[in-house]
């Protein structure tokens, strides 16, 4: 039997940590190894416990979740899943830039919580479609403001490493950019999930992307998807 995925819970509200711990602790394949009430404590606890996954709140005293995520990712101290209400788009985008592997709604049900932890723990970072749209929209706004003329995604220069992708891998990257899961990509392209998983791994490796979150950003910046898609 494989060892359980280890999880660190970070939130300044004890009730939130307790509710998450209650759901996670009953699973045989998941073990809660620590809790923290702010970003500074999270870094200390992560160094001590080396968790596979860190469930990270954003607004906390002393050090917020965005800054804590930067430190954790830089020191390779676990895959960070941001726990958010999505009421601040700047938090969402800043967390991605800090290296977060995914997002979880604070009012998520038990199954969503378990799925998020397992996906992150296996390195399969996921973004929900509504999150993908927000990310792309935020990037589109920033790019338009910076470009002045408002260059569209379709007018962007395609990175030269895109030539390394096969036609099928390019299709997979587009669907990754729209936030689709492996199952959804398989259904769209009429492929087996194992085949899709191989294609996704090849795409990430060839483009030197850490995870699916970076693939979303890359697909937009490469001009493969438009801000209105997702």
Automatic annotation (TrEMBL):
- What keywords were assigned to this record? DNA-binding, Phosphoprotein, Transcription, Transcription regulation
| CDD domains linked to this entry | LuxR_C_like, REC_NarL-like
Q: Which domain of life is it from?
A: Bacteria
Where is the PTM 4-aspartylphosphate found along the chain?
57
Record's keyword annotation contains Amino-acid biosynthesis:
no
Tell me which residues make up the HTH luxR-type domain: 158-223
- Which Pfam families does this entry report, sorted A to Z? GerE (PF00196), Response_reg (PF00072)
SUPFAM superfamilies per UniProt: C-terminal effector domain of the bipartite response regulators, CheY-like
Positions of the Response regulatory domain: 6-121
Please indicate if the UniProt record lists Transcription regulation as a keyword.
Answer: yes
Q: What is the name listed in the Swiss-Prot or TrEMBL entry for this protein?
A: Response regulator transcription factor
């Amino acid at each position: 039997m494989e060892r359980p995925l280890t999880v660190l819970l970070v939130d300044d509200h004890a009730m939130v940590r307790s509710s998450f711990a209650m759901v996670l602790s009953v699973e045989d394949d998941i073990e809660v190894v620590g809790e923290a009430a702010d970003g500074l404590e999270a870094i200390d606890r992560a160094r001590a416990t080396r968790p596979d996954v860190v469930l990270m709140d954003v607004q906390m005293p002393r050090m917020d979740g965005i800054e804590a995520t930067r430190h954790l990712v830089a020191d390779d101290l676990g895959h960070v899943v941001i726990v958010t209400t999505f009421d601040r788009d700047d938090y969402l985008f800043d967390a991605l830039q800090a290296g977060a592997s995914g997002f979880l709604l604070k009012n998520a049900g038990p199954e969503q919580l378990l799925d998020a932890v397992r996906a992150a723990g296996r390195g399969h970072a996921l973004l929900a479609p509504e999150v993908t749209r927000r990310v792309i929209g935020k990037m589109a706004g920033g790019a338009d403001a910076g470009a002045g003329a408002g260059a569209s995604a379709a007018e962007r220069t395609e990175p030269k490493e895109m030539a390394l992708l096969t036609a099928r891998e390019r299709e997979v990257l587009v669907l990754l950019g729209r936030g689709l899961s492996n199952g959804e990509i398989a259904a769209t392209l009429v492929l087996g999930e194992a085949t899709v998983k191989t294609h996704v791994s090849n795409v990430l490796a060839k483009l030197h992307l850490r995870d699916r979150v970076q693939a979303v950003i890359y697909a937009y910046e490469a001009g493969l998807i438009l801000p209105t898609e997702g």
